[in-house]
Design brief:
Length: 347
């Protein structure tokens, strides 16, 4: 008899516990400071998997589980997982995502959580989206519904970033992101969402962003690559800068003031709208001289931190790298610019 009572009580107690946890989370989410707390927890991070073969064939993956441990040990708190599911649509009706895609994404999220790293699922299909975005909207929304449904039970350490660098007219972007927001809030009412500005997530377009009303569980994402002639010199995909070289960045007062002015503009917007800022991307391409890259990266990271922004460096592997997978070693000067305790470069 006692065992029967015990078997009946335990499931009920578990049920009460889960209900209580849901109430506690709901109370936290309604707190206008919740997104700021989430942003503080994000802290310093790295973009990952943008060009990794893992998406098509896990056996060809460059990143492995040990890299997540190394990222955590180095002092990072988040990974921004760049996803592009557009190439995985099984059909053009309901845009079902190929299960192969989710094998990679499930693995990356779980590796992040296993290593106590927060995970940002970043919809990184901006190149496809910028070409006739309204025609891509149906696919975009259908895929977010699938992603939202799949991860709705995951912990609050997983965040959704609606779209990376939405390069389109602001009215179109406001229309698209508002519809994506509505879909995600149905399946993930308590999930912290990241919402970025148009044209490369530029700071000057914060004024164009129309945000959901009465929802403060949002972090606004900006990117920073200024001066672009320095950060993108020699980058083969950059039409205006691919032939540039030899451009340095020295932390003169005037050079620093440009960055401060830009960041102060974003900070003022953040305070006015009572929403936190994350610097979702920043970095300088390898063709720039190393000493300038170190100075610029260090200065941008410290300025972001001075304003209590989280940040995610672009990126772990491929280009702008902070870790050399081929050699299986950190690029110590860049790591030291991001997290000074790791390496003290000579100035």
């Amino acid at each position: 008899m006692k065992n029967q009572i015990k078997h009946r009580i335990l499931p009920f107690m578990v049920f009460l516990f889960l209900i209580n946890q849901s109430i506690v989370l709901a109370q936290k989410v309604t707190d206008p400071k919740y997104a700021f707390i989430q942003n503080e927890r994000l802290g310093r991070g790295i973009n990952i998997l943008s060009a990794d073969p893992i998406w098509r064939d896990p056996l060809k993956a460059r990143m492995n589980s040990d890299h997540f441990r190394l990222i955590k040990e180095a002092g990072f708190g988040n990974v921004r997982i760049a996803i592009n599911p557009f190439g995985f649509a099984l059909n053009q009706t309901d845009f079902t995502i190929d299960p192969t895609f989710f094998i990679a994404l499930d693995w990356a999220i779980q590796q992040a959580l296993n290593n106590k790293l927060m995970a940002i699922i970043d919809f990184h299909a901006h190149i496809a989206m910028q070409e006739k975005p309204l025609k891509k909207k149906a696919m975009f929304l259908a895929m977010w519904k699938q992603i939202g449904d799949r991860y709705k039970g995951f912990p609050s350490d997983v965040l959704f970033e609606i779209c990376n660098e939405p390069n389109m007219d602001p009215a179109i972007w406001n229309e698209i992101h508002s519809e994506a927001y509505a879909i995600l809030r149905k399946s993930n009412p308590s999930r912290t969402l990241l919402l970025g500005t148009i044209n490369g997530n530029q700071i000057l377009h914060l004024k164009d962003l129309i945000l959901p009303e009465n929802d403060k569980n949002i972090i606004v994402a900006i990117h920073y690559y200024s001066p672009i002639q320095f950060t993108h010199q020699g980058a083969p995909w950059s039409k205006k800068n691919k032939d540039l070289s030899g451009i340095s960045w020295t932390n003169t007062k005037s050079a620093e003031e440009v960055i401060k002015k830009d960041f102060d503009l974003a900070d003022a917007w953040s305070k006015k709208n009572m929403l936190p800022i994350t610097l979702g991307e920043f970095g300088a391409y390898e063709k720039a001289e190393e000493s300038s890259r170190i100075r610029w990266t260090d200065y941008v990271a410290r300025q972001a931190e001075a304003r209590n922004w989280s940040w995610s460096y672009w990126q772990f592997d491929s280009d702008f790298i902070v870790y050399d997978i081929n050699k299986e070693e950190w690029v110590l000067p860049i790591l030291g610019a991001l997290i000074p305790k790791q390496y003290k470069p000579s100035r």
